[in-house]
Amino acid sequence: MTTHRAPEQSTRRPAPHSERAVVAGLVLAVGAGVAWIGGMIYTIVGWSG
Length: 49
What we know:
By secondary structure, the protein is an all-alpha fold. The protein is 67% helix and 0% strand. It has one helix and no strands. It is elongated and about 75 Å long. The termini are far apart. The relative contact order is 0.07. The model has no long low-confidence stretch (mean pLDDT 87).
């Protein structure tokens, strides 16, 4: 009986342009998170003052 297996994954690294896109996305996400937290702190300080 024949076994149907997925081909072995290659050990090659991903293409450099996709790696750069992932890093850029992570940097943008971290920047957006920091900006959001800063906005929340600013809003809470504004409410309490």
